[in-house]
UniProtKB/TrEMBL annotation:
Ranges that cross the membrane: 43-61, 95-112, 169-187, 199-219, 377-395
Lineage: Bacteria, Pseudomonadati, Pseudomonadota, Alphaproteobacteria, Hyphomicrobiales
Coiled-coil positions: none
One Pfam entry name: Fer4_18
Domain named 4Fe-4S ferredoxin-type: residues: 264-295
Annotated keywords: 4Fe-4S, Electron transport, Iron, Iron-sulfur, Membrane, Metal-binding, Transmembrane, Transmembrane helix, Transport
PANTHER family tied to this protein: FERREDOXIN-TYPE PROTEIN NAPH
Protein name: Cytochrome c oxidase accessory protein CcoG
Length: 519
């Protein structure tokens, strides 16, 4: 018991106590990925060539749309508010096609992630592709991992300065080419290229190139894996999409542990060893600088280069490939149970092998049917449904549109001969890049005729009018009906438009207003 003059001492410590405080900032540890070779590396080269080829070359593809439209196959014509994609022309009011494609891309990403994990990150994400490209340059200039580490650790010499300057110069050229390719999507590429080099392009073109050069250089050359680890939200989101049947790059410790660099010696003293010889080849090739043997990690982009590295080691040792492999959590768990005798012991790799050293029949392997499960059916169904809906809408969309606005004030006018006249603003939208002659016809409204204000077209129930390619034509039309034909204060009739060359037509139901009791 404490008396009144004594103060109780409590067991408490501040959560950020100076004694235990960790710095919030951790300096980046440099990563020097070693060149990998193998099936996945070859596949990545292929994806890299395709994706970069598409990005850099697409603006140079031509597509003949006739003399009244640009001949660039893919063009975002912001000034005229059009998006051209080969034979498809999207108007601003049809932007839902672009929105639909983005939704499809999102659902497709869910589908890919739930089946093969972060394949997007490992193979096709622009950050991954450009970092790969920047690493190609780095290796070409400074050498592979050991040479780069030596150079980095060494003092600044004329050679080091030259190598570093060369590397950064090539990186900047790639950055500029990336920015340059981007702006070619927004204007005629050959024309803009000429303007860029003669200094006559719009300032926004130079600013865009400068910004994209800086971001490509910074993200691809300087920040690299930090973009994936700290800036990108996808590693966090993907966890919600993976399940125990999703494929992820996995270190199969049920056959790899206990690892040993001196397997023969360890076996000689009667201890069992796994297949991992602790050579660190998987760590050396990893562009994220992590060790997959530590288990699934947020940083792992599933690029599978560690699989290639380890397969190479297994080949040399004469062991089965796949110590690191794409595997599902359910297969991994089943094999771990086998290797640990149901979880009752530490890993004993002999439990997964037969007496002759081959894998036991009980070892679980991935089967393609695991891809087909309720979750992937839902994603595939949704993706197909949106795709088919967009396709149907695209194939059946109108290229000749009609919009009619009835004059509100006055709603009708009584002419000197007693007939009633209504005014309309008729908008004809020719959505193809060719001139057309549109025939406008009235249907219904007995005895009525129409005239086009400011045009020489004689009064009648039909007239033909030319409309420029890809243009909206606005007409002021007066419709007149003799008094003796009017039998209601509001009658409906149709404006019908038709292109007799293409048999395309459209119609609009309008109202003709008259006084309650026409005289
Ligand atoms: S651990 Fe393997 S799959 Fe993951 S990022 Fe590193 S090399 Fe790629
Ligand atoms: S490459 Fe294979 S054998 Fe070498 S440390 Fe990695 S897992 Fe072990």
């Amino acid at each position: 018991m404490l008396d009144k003059t004594q103060v109780e001492r409590l067991e408490a410590e501040a959560v950020n106590s100076a004694k235990t405080r960790q710095p919030l900032y951790a300096a980046r540890k440099k990563i020097f990925p070693k060149r990998a070779s193998g099936n996945f590396r070859r596949f990545k080269w292929l994806v890299m060539a395709i994706t970069l080829g598409i990005y850099y070359l697409t603006p140079w593809l031509r597509w003949d749309r006739g003399p009244f439209a640009p001949d660039q196959a893919v063009l975002l014509d912001v000034a005229n508010r059009r998006f051209y994609f080969f034979f498809i022309e999207i108007w601003p009011q049809e932007f839902f096609y672009v929105a639909g494609l983005l939704v499809m891309a999102g659902v497709g990403l869910f589908l890919i992630t739930s089946t093969v994990g972060r394949a997007w990150c490992g193979y096709a994400c622009p950050q991954t592709v450009w970092v790969d490209l920047f690493l190609v340059v780095e290796r070409a200039v400074e050498g592979d991992r050991n040479a780069r580490m030596k150079l980095d650790a060494g003092p600044w010499t004329a050679r080091k300065l030259m190598l570093r300057l060369s590397k950064h110069a090539v990186w900047l050229v790639i950055g500029a080419a990336t920015g340059g390719a981007w702006i070619f999507y927004f204007a005629d590429a050959p024309t803009l290229m000429g303007e860029l080099f003669t200094g006559t392009a719009a300032p926004v073109a130079y600013i865009t190139i400068a910004v994209l050069t800086a971001t490509t250089y910074t993200f691809g050359g300087l920040m690299r894996e930090q973009v994936c680890t700290y800036m990108c939200p996808w590693p966090r989101i993907q966890a919600a999409m993976l399940d125990e049947n999703s494929l992820t790059v996995t270190y199969n410790d049920w056959r790899g542990e206990p690892r040993s660099r001196h397997a023969k010696k360890v076996q000689a003293i009667g201890q069992s060893v796994g297949d991992c010889v602790d050579c660190n080849a998987c760590v050396a090739v990893c562009p994220m600088g992590i060790d997959i043997r530590d288990g699934q990690q947020l940083e792992c982009i599933t690029c599978a280069l560690c699989i290639d590295a380890c397969d190479g080691v297994m080949d040399k040792l004469g062991k089965e490939r796949g110590l690191i492999s794409y595997a599902t959590l359910s297969d991994y768990n089943a094999n771990m149970m086998l290797a640990t005798a149901g979880g009752s012991s530490s890993i004993n790799p002999s439990l997964v092998r037969t007496a002759v050293g081959t894998f036991s029949d009980q070892v679980a392997h991935f089967h393609i049917r695991k891809i087909f499960r309720p979750r992937t059916y839902v994603y595939m169904g949704l993706w197909s449904l949106i795709g088919l809906g967009l396709l149907y809408s695209l194939l059946t969309r109108d290229r000749l549109e009609l919009n009619v606005l009835h004059d509100r004030n006055p709603q009708f006018v009584t002419l000197s001969d007693g007939s009633i006249r209504n005014g309309y603003t008729v908008k004809l939208l020719n959505m193809i890049p060719e001139p057309r002659t549109i025939v406008v016809t009235m249907e219904g409204l007995e005895g009525a005729d129409m005239v086009v204000v400011g045009d020489d077209i004689p009064a009648g129930r039909s007239f033909a009018i030319p409309v420029e390619p890809d243009r909206l034509k606005t007409l002021k039309v007066f419709v007149r009906q003799p008094a003796d034909q009017i039998h209601a204060p509001a009658q409906t009739f149709k404006f019908r438009v038709e292109d007799r060359a293409s048999f395309e037509s459209n119609e609009y139901t309008a109202t003709f207003n008259a006084p309650e009791a026409p005289k």
